[in-house]
C-alpha cells in the first residue's frame, strides 16, 4: 500500500499506472490483479489505509454521555477527518470522478464505497440511540433518519471543500458544526 500511496500522491490518479505500482513494488503487474480488480480499487484501499477509516474509528470512542449530541458526533468525525487533510483537493476530485466512471465497468466498486457510508450511518445511529436511551430524544424520534441527515451534511461539506478551491478545511469543519447545531441545538441537556 505504501508504494501505491506514494505514487498516487506524487503523480495523481491519471499519472499512476498499475505497471508503475508493480515496478516500484518489485512484483509483476499481473500479481496486483490477484488482489485488486482495478487501479481505482488500489487507490481506494490506499486511502482507507491512510485515513484508517475501517480501523480505529469507533463509535465507542465517542460514547461519553456527558457530551452534547453535537459534541459526540464531532468527536466521531474527528477520528477520520484528519486523514482527509492529507489529500490534495485536485486529487480528491480525481477520485470522485474516477469512482463515478468506474461504476460503468465495475459497479461493485461504487457499492463498496457506499457500504462505508452505510457503516457510518449505522454508527451515528447507534450513538443517537444511546442518547435516546437516556431521554435526550423522545421515544418517537427517528434515529435512522437523523443519522442519514447527519451523514448527508458531512458528505455535502466534504464535497464542497473538494470542489470550491477557496474553501479551507477549517471552513468545511465549521460548516459541519453549523449543520449539526441546526439539527441538535434543542437537545442540549443541563450539565
TrEMBL record:
PANTHER family: ACREF/ENVCD OPERON REPRESSOR-RELATED, ACREF_ENVCD OPERON REPRESSOR-RELATED
InterPro entries assigned to the protein according to its UniProt record, in alphabetical order: DNA-bd_HTH_TetR-type_CS, Homeodomain-like_sf, HTH-type_Tx_Regulator, HTH_TetR
Keywords: DNA-binding
Recorded superkingdom: Bacteria
PROSITE patterns xrefs: HTH_TETR_1 (PS01081), HTH_TETR_2 (PS50977)
HTH tetR-type domain location: 1-54
Matching SUPFAM superfamilies: Homeodomain-like
Protein name: TetR/AcrR family transcriptional regulator
DNA-binding region: 17-36
Amino acid at each position: 500500500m505504501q508504494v501505491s500511496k506514494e505514487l498516487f500522491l506524487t503523480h495523481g490518479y491519471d499519472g499512476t499506472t498499475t505497471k508503475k505500482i508493480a515496478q516500484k513494488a518489485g512484483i509483476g503487474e499481473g500479481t496486483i490483479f490477484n488482489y485488486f480488480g482495478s487501479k481505482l480499487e488500489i487507490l481506494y484501499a490506499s486511502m482507507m489505509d491512510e485515513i484508517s477509516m475501517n480501523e480505529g474509528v469507533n463509535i465507542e470512542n465517542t460514547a461519553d454521555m456527558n457530551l452534547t449530541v453535537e459534541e459526540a458526533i464531532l468527536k466521531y468525525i474527528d477520528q477520520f477527518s484528519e486523514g482527509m487533510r492529507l489529500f490534495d483537493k485536485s486529487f480528491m476530485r480525481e477520485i470522485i470522478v474516477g469512482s463515478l466512471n468506474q461504476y460503468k465497468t465495475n459497479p461493485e466498486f461504487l457499492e463498496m464505497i457506499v457500504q462505508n457510508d452505510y457503516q457510518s450511518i449505522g454508527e451515528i445511529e447507534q450513538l443517537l440511540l444511546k442518547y435516546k436511551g437516556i431521554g435526550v430524544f423522545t421515544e418517537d424520534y427517528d434515529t435512522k433518519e437523523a443519522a442519514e441527515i447527519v451523514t448527508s451534511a458531512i458528505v455535502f461539506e466534504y464535497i464542497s471543500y473538494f470542489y470550491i478551491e477557496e474553501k479551507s478545511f477549517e471552513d468545511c469543519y465549521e460548516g459541519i458544526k453549523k449543520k449539526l447545531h441546526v439539527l441538535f441545538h434543542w437537545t442540549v441537556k443541563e450539565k
